[in-house]
Amino acid sequence: MIDTQDYKQVLGAFPTGVTVVTALDEEGCLVGFTASAFSAVSMDPPLVLICPSLNSDSYPVIKRNGRFAIHILGHDQQAIAYRFAGKGKNKGEGIDWRCSELQNALICGAAAYLECRVWEDYPGGDHAILVGEVEKLWCGGDQVDPLLYCRGKMDQLPENLRALARAS
């Protein structure tokens, strides 16, 4: 049997970017969750995956709408990451966002985003494995550094990596 705390500690040792997945509910309100489980799946067609908790308020909305947006958060968006990591409704209250042409909720200030439609939905224990087909994307280039997560802490890219990224 794997201890839950040990499992979280081991997974937390893997540095990642921080993403927030959003969708619009039936009333046009922003719903979403912070996702560490995000990955590219395929180049052709362009597919990505996210893994929402089966208990999240957002997962049923995404299933019904068949649409979602993934935001790679900017280094100054820690408060947004923590807000969407929590439970409950009204996570979007006070968040600067807009509705896209594809009817996705887009959080302003993100380093990048991908607008997706649900391509497939697989079972994954206490989470779903949602594969999304990317329909539209945007990247701020080196304008906004991404927010990073490792061992329970969030921060921006170290200066040496920022300099290397800008030089390329």
UniProtKB/TrEMBL annotation:
Keyword annotations for this protein, in alphabetical order, are: Oxidoreductase
Q: Cite the Flavin reductase like domain residue spans from the record.
A: 11-156
**According to its UniProt record, which protein family does this protein belong to?**
Belongs to the non-flavoprotein flavin reductase family.
Output this protein's name.
Answer: Flavin reductase domain-containing protein
Query: Pfam families given for it?
Result: Flavin_Reduct
Q: Cross-referenced InterPro entries, in alphabetical order? A: Flavin_Rdtase-like_dom, NADH-dep_flavin_reductase, Split_barrel_FMN-bd
Report the superkingdom from the record.
Bacteria
Q: Name one GO molecular function term.
A: riboflavin reductase (NADPH) activity
To which species is this protein native? Marinobacter manganoxydans MnI7-9
Query: SUPFAM superfamilies of this UniProt entry?
Result: FMN-binding split barrel
